[in-house]
Specification:
Layout lengths: L2 E4 L2 H13 L13 H8 L3 E9 L2 E10 L3 E4 L9 E2 L9 H15 L4 E6 L12 E4 L24 H7 L2 H12 L3 E5 L4 H15 L6 H10 L3 E8 L2 E11 L2 E9 L8 H16 L2 H15 L4 E3 L2 E3 L5 E3 L7 H13 L4 H32 L4 H29 L12
């Protein structure tokens, strides 16, 4: 038997995200803990999210979904199985851990939620278990299904470089789609009707069951990291893409085009629009105010294109996904949730910290812009060793203020006089 500890859900989601997003290797949309609510509330399944510990240190993350008589990691998405955080000498391999935890779910009838699990050496599982399906890129349990393919592209940091990296025939088809009059819209629920119209028609054509509009609507509502793309010809929807992302991993999770219009290269237009969005999206909210300040307040005559600031001296700053401050947001909320203090104060202090981190990020871009113009030879040093650590100095100062003012506030001294 493993030692399982039920965690408070909101804190566990933040802890899960902090661990996943601070991992150096690939993290897919399947690892997004927001899917927990989607499985529980819309699909009425039983999700169990395990934060695996070994020798009191977190070493892995695993989601198992009980669909009644069958356990899947995880339904509707690729990239299930264990997301390893550390290469500790754990006494059980991935398949053994999943078998033991599935046995635990089968025997204990524990309630759905997030659990901390301390890994210990276990005897082999000999009793019968429900069917287990792991949608992983690794071979587990001696079985595999080769009918599904996942294509990964490591994107360039700039849209122009990415386009140039494509083969000439692919670039030709993308340009041809634009000349053919295909235009793309991106958004959320307002595009759902058009997306499902194309998706349902295409699924029926190939004889595959559809997931239904309510499925996608619930997913859009439950998970913030979602975006719809719809291709139009003369205002008629002819292609659609349901995009999800987590950290810097972006996935075209559901994709359909109307075969009547495929000769116009609809799919090429949709994929390229998604790729451009993936390159530019994550850091755009930092780029816009930084560019405005540098141009209108600092007074530099800059050009902007694709989240990049170009300066008169031929220098440039590319505001990339890693510049978004997302990692620092998670570090801040994780620190504040774990550290004790009055919740009445945390309710406003945590959001204020987000604002401070965002403004710090903008300030960082502004300072680096000044460096580009005046001391370009020192840019790398200032970027890596001064402005990047500056983030953590700000977080530390906010933490110290919390300690001094709210966690352990100094009591006012009272002086009594005797007459």
């Amino acid at each position: 038997m493993f030692e399982l500890q039920l965690l408070e859900q909101n804190k566990a989601i933040d802890q899960w995200s902090y661990l996943a997003l601070n991992k150096s290797s690939l993290v897919s949309v399947a690892h997004n803990p927001s899917l927990f609510h989607f499985y529980l509330n819309f699909l009425s399944l039983s999700p169990f999210y395990f934060i695996l510990h070994f020798k009191n240190e977190p070493v892995g993350l695993l989601a198992l979904i009980d669909i009644g008589g069958k356990i899947i990691s995880i339904p509707h998405f690729s990239g299930g199985g264990i997301l390893w955080l550390k290469n500790n000498e754990i006494p059980l391999n991935e398949a053994e851990l999943i078998l033991h935890l599935s046995s635990e779910l089968n025997d204990s009838k524990i309630k759905t939620g997030f659990y901390q699990v301390e890994i210990t050496r276990q005897k082999s599982v000999e009793k019968s278990l429900p069917t287990i399906e792991v949608r992983s890129f690794n071979y587990l349990f001696g079985a595999s299904d080769t009918n599904k393919t996942v294509c990964l592209i490591h994107l360039e940091k700039q849209e122009k470089k990415q386009f140039e990296a494509f083969k000439s025939n692919l670039r030709r088809k993308i340009n041809k789609a634009e000349k053919n009059g295909i235009h793309i819209r991106s958004g959320g629920l307002e595009l759902l009707e058009d997306f499902t119209q194309v998706y349902n028609r295409n699924m029926h054509r190939i004889g595959s069951p559809t997931l239904g509009k309510q499925f996608f609507k619930s997913l859009l509502s439950a998970v913030n990291e979602t975006e719809l793309f719809v291709a139009y010809m003369n205002d008629k929807p002819i292609g659609g893409s349901f995009v999800m992302w987590y950290d810097d991993y972006v996935e075209n999770t559901w994709f359909s085009t109307d075969d009547v219009y495929n000769h116009l290269y609809t799919s090429f237009a949709l994929h390229w629009e998604t790729i451009k969005w993936a390159i530019n999206n994550m850091a755009h909210q930092v780029f816009l105010p930084s560019a405005w300040f540098v141009e209108h307040i600092v007074g530099y005559d800059i050009k902007t294109l694709n989240n990049t600031l170009y300066f008169p001296n031929n220098g440039y700053i590319a505001v990339e996904g890693s510049c978004s401050g997302l990692k620092q947001f998670y570090q801040w909320i994780f620190l504040m949730l774990l550290f004790p203090g009055p919740w009445k104060q945390k309710l406003w202090y945590i959001p204020m910290g987000f604002l401070v981190i965002h403004l710090t990020n903008i300030f960082r871009i502004i300072v680096l812009s000044v460096v580009v113009m005046n001391w370009p030879q020192h840019w790398d040093f200032i970027h890596e060793w001064i402005m990047r650590p500056f983030f953590y100095v700000v977080i530390f100062v906010m933490w110290v203020i919390w300690i001094e003012k709210f966690r352990y506030p100094k009591k006012k001294k009272t002086i009594s006089k005797s007459v």
